[in-house]
């Protein structure tokens, strides 16, 4: 997946740097996909809670775009070449395109619960692997995971009842989650 590195950060082995760049590229695809998906939701939510959800989403778009920039520049810092074209995202991502068009705020939030679950699960898996590879990149991933988990809570707070139970409990697909609210 990664191209040959002609230089990397001092003290990092070439093999470790290659793997770190692969992990960074995977998160770069995830963040580029996520900020576009969040804008799509911003544009497609309808219903009585439109303005609250429409406006809640934009700061998430901005933050995730910032994550993508940091990930891409870390790839370059390690001697790699970040891929940010739409074709590279679609060709290399391990998930399907967001599946919901115009829909109610609750349906989109339910689908976003599934989206955030997928993104955060992958970040946490990467954090474990980075323990032995590169603590500097791990630090970046930790900070991004913390923010993503906060945004995930913003989404989930709309889906829980007074007892704290999520309407989307057990849902594994966006459409399945949207159907549960
Ligand atoms: Fe807008």
What does this structure look like?
This protein has 181 residues and is mainly alpha-helical. It is built from six helices and two strands, in the order αβααβααα. The protein has a two-stranded parallel ribbon. The chain binds fe (ii) ion (FE2).
Helix-strand topology string: HEHHEHHH
- Percent of residues in helical segments? 55-70%
Poorly predicted runs are none
Spatial ordering of strands, largest sheet:
1-2
Q: Count all strands and give the number.
A: 2
- What small molecules are bound in this structure? fe (ii) ion
Strand content: under 5%
Task: Characterize the largest beta sheet: strand count, sense, and whether it forms a barrel.
Answer: 2 strands, parallel
| Overall mean confidence score, pLDDT | 96
**Oligomerization status of the protein chains:** single chain
The structural class is mainly alpha
Span of the ends, CA to CA: 39 Å
Helix segment tally: 6
Supply Rg: 17 Å
Shape: elongated
